[in-house]
Amino acid sequence: MTDEQAVNPYADRLPDRLVDHAEWQRLDPLMLLVHPIREVGRFLVPLIGILVAGSASGGHDWWWNVIGIAIPVALGVARYVTTSFRIAGGRVELRRGLLNKHVLSTPIDRVRTVDITASPIHRVLGLTTVRIGTGTASKKGEDELDLDGVRTRAAAALRSDLLHGTPEARERATEADNTRPVVRFDPGWLRFAPFTSSGLVIAAAVLGGGSQVLNGLGLWDQLPIDTTAERAARLSLLLLVPVALLGLALVASVLAVLGYLVTNYGFTLVYTRADHAWHLRRGLLTTRETSMDATRLRGVSLGEPLGLRLASGARLSAIVTGLDRDERGSGTLVPPAPRDLVAGVAVQVLGTPEPVTAPLVAHGPAATRRRYTRALVVPALVTVAATTLAFTADVPWETVLLGPLALAAGYGLAVDRSRTLGHALVGGHLVSRAGSLVRRRVALETPAVIGWTFSDTWFQRRVGLTTLVATMAGGRQSVTVLDVPAPVGTALARDAVPGLVEQFLVLGDEGPAGRVLEVPPEVAEPDA
Amino acid sequence: MTARRLGGMEPAPRLRDPSELVSPRARLMWMVGGLVRAAVLMAALLVTSLVFDWYDLQWWMPVLLGAVTLAAAFVIPQWRYLVHRWEVTDTAVYTQTGWWRRERRIAPMSRIQTVDYVEGAIARLFGLASVTVTTASAAGALEIAGLDRDRARAVVDELTIKADTIPGDAT
Hints:
The complex is a heterodimer. By secondary structure, chain A is α+β, with helices and mostly antiparallel strands. Chain A has helices at 2-7, 31-42, 44-56, 63-82, 120-125, 152-163, 167-173, 198-217, 225-234, 237-264, 306-310, 339-350, 354-357, 364-392, 402-420, 458-462, 486-496, 521-524; strands at 21-26, 84-88, 91-96, 102-107, 113-118, 127-133, 145-151, 179-184, 268-272, 277-282, 287-293, 297-305, 313-320, 332-338, 422-426, 429-434, 438-445, 451-456, 465-471, 478-485, 505-507, 518-519. Among the domains of chain A are: 188-264, no CATH class; 364-524, no CATH class. Chain A is 42% helix and 26% strand. In chain A, a hairpin with a 6-residue loop joins strand 19 and strand 20. The radius of gyration of chain A is 28 Å and the shape is globular. Chain B has helices spanning 25-51, 60-83, 121-125, 149-165; strands spanning 10-11, 13-15, 20-21, 85-88, 92-97, 102-108, 112-118, 128-135, 142-148. In chain B, strands 3-4-5-6 form a four-stranded antiparallel beta sheet. A three-stranded antiparallel beta sheet of chain B has the order 7-8-9. Chain B starts with 9 loop residues before the first strand and ends in a 6-residue tail after the last helix. Chain A binds chain B through residues 135, 137, 321-322, 324-325, 450-458, 461, 469, 471-474, 477-478, 486-487, 490-491, 493-494, 497, 499-501, 503-509, 511, 516-521, 524-525, and chain B through 5, 8-16, 18, 87, 89, 91-92, 94, 98, 100-108, 111, 135-140, 142, 170-171. Strand 21 of chain A pairs antiparallel with strand 2 (13-15) of chain B.
């Protein structure tokens, strides 16, 4: 045991001064077990080939099997031996690579998030992977700072050190009232899973993967596809389409529930006072623990996709500066759950209720008209095309029904979109809501706004609308206030970030219709 | 605030255009760019129909394509020249670009991260350059295209100095 600790001080204890290891150290030796298993997984397909080749040649070439095992093991050992890290001089450094030497180095005060994940193999061995997020713009996988193979207990200590390295902070972290649980997983949430689109995504993946396997094994030809298709073709489309949709919905629902369970089982959201951070933990097989520095958490996005709204559910994600879009998963704050609960969490995270509850300023008749034209143009084209086809080409007469269906769907979208559209400037937050199928209410701290974009097409200028975009250094990189009347949008930008837009303003100029535009008081001051 | 809202109504605030125009030679640059694009599209049309034989070339195809691309090459640069404007103040950068979709971008000096100076292949022919200002947001880059080369260098220097004097980590 003492030898091991000499190799890796993080191994299996809680040293009192963790961020003080100037020596290069290897990860946990148990990774010697993990790496070969993982390499075997990576080489699974060629391995099977090798083994099959070995047995097919009558067992004489036994050394094929040895190579098949030896290569992954050797690669695993090499990976373990060549990877080392140290935390010294206020920097985290990770050195790795067998052929290409690679040293990653980042200052500790740049660390924005620390993720602790544990795959099933890791969990059996009591290990975790610590991923250090620095908000780099680099998209290359090799630039990620992963410490793969840290004992579970030490990982927590390492995380708390990376996020706040002062002794006082560590002292406070041991106080009894330090942690405040905010939400805990409730099996009842599973009812929301079928209302998300994840089931369809999983179904598509299963279908794709399944067909590939069938193809690979040569079973594809044995499936009775032709006879099934023939039988199906004799049925009426009006029967076939709903039945197929129902079947798909059923399969997707089951898959969605399973997917939800695998991702979100054991979900907890905890706030710790000492380091002012939010900790999110979830996962059935692979557990994942994300910590977000609360001072970097600049806003939330309350997502209410159409499906979830039907079940009066919602989901919440965090806008963290320094987390890019590819790390959206770690931006999740609450998975699909009851709307009231989600809103409650949003209020706690933002520290003020107004951005979540305050009524929004609507964008007026021109914006509403635009919702209708935009939602109905495509259905109108579909109607024309479908009707033309039905009367001229040799297609089933039911094609005609596509037109009304598309128009009804478009109309519904337009109604919902125009009702949703709105913005507000309350409680120090810029709030914007838009969308129907994917409705989002985004609230962003105004100091996190790092620029404005006013974009308007000729159509928008003609009716005096503009799309105001507040850019930010996190989440989706921007918050959009769609189709807001130009003077209202300008006033919003002026009031949200004082001292920036004023210098480019002129007052009371002529509007697009040649008359002086005036802002009604209720629009000019949304928080009044 | 209250003073401005006397009587419950306030005059509508409106963004004015940025003060500076880009170099008049930018029109020529955009025109050459448009002509190159027209030539490439025409070549693609002829190659796909005559060499690869994907479809029969009708007489109206090159005529239509030529008319549209040439018109675009001559009209859009004029339009764009009227729209493209920029301004640098002590606290902010303000640009206006586009022709059909007009985009006005404002970035505070304190949030500027990098200032890029680029001389494109065509821009070089006309002694022009573009200056791109980025912030920590992937959605917030400001580009001033078609500046006179010396002017562009001066803008880069000015921006670098101003951005440097303001503290903060720009996020």
